[in-house]
Amino acid sequence: MVLTSSTFAFTICFAVWMMFAVIGIPIKQQLDLSETQFGLLAAMPVLTGSLIRVPLGLWTDRFGGRIVFFLLMLSTVIPIWMMSYATQYWHFLVIGMFVGLAGGSFSVGTPYVARWFPKNRQGLAMGIFGAGNSGSALTKFVAPVLIVMAGGSWTIVPKVYSVAMLITALLFWMFSSTNPAHNASKSVGLKEQLKMLKDPRVWRYCQYYSVVFGGYVALALWMTKYYVGEYGFSIQTAALLAACFSLPGGVLRAAGGWISDKYGAYQTTWWVMWVCWVAFFLLSYPQTDFTVLTVNGPQTFRIALSPTVFTILLFVVGIATAIGKASVFKFISDDFGHNIGAVSGVVGLAGGLGGFILPIMFGALVDITGVRSSSFMLLYGTVCISLIWMHFSFRRETVAKGQAALATQT
pTM of the entire structure? Predict the structure, then answer.
């Protein structure tokens, strides 16, 4: 019941967190925003949802996940409703910061759920909870329908979401439980809980997560608009196609937890990065027309990804990021079992900041270059950094362990 109620609550929280992926498009037209301004608008909830993750993780260790999760959801109900009355750009930015608190729910639910399961099943349990990322796809299914039902008005979406959040908070409280044995000792202070930040492994996991989660959030926010601009689809069709990325990127996180339990966090994450590397390379290529002077005269060629091929590649990336998000947290549960809340808060912060910065950079790159696929060029570069760092850091650790083993034998 804890796992089920927490996963449902996280799904609704994530749907709210990704609200601007759909309603941001009519708002952009209403306010005549640039690409960079749209990127900031879409990413603003991600900023506060990221910054709040560290204190939420610490509070979860101290007070328990149930009460923290419940109060967090209640705190977002009024800001979500107020979003429907915003008229100026700064209104949306300010209210979006408060709505973004819902995104911090991940750092509460992860340690809360994990502690109810033995270590050999924590990867699967956290993966099932993390499947709440599919709330991103839920928004892409529900929000366009609500807009159509309201005669094209986007203001219906935050009103419905506000009521849904209130109902979800009450249902969560009714069906979840508390185990005081899961809480950290009251004598453990903030300074002691943050000692693990000196461990280089934490920063390594932050980088991985900024790619698999930050990239996922950024693309989930950006892809509906990308389909509209690149292929000329309606917002309803664009949202449906964008869900082909968001849905596997959320639902299959549970499978990623099982794979990580079976094959190990390192092996799983390594192959996830390689799959993303190939997919982002192909997605980076812009629609191109070029002319070659042949012996028979000029010959014009066109290279472009069709909507079908583009969507298939996005689907593959969605699967890879789902598995990668779970494998990174398997690293955490293996290495920091007694501080999952604090460490998951730090790593979640890094991933969330990636999801905040990337959409802004996507917009800036489009404004500067005029090339929409520049967003995938940026993601390709981040994956390259992850692969290089992962290779050399784990190689050094393997050599060190081998030398220690030889020293023990001699």
Answer: 0.80
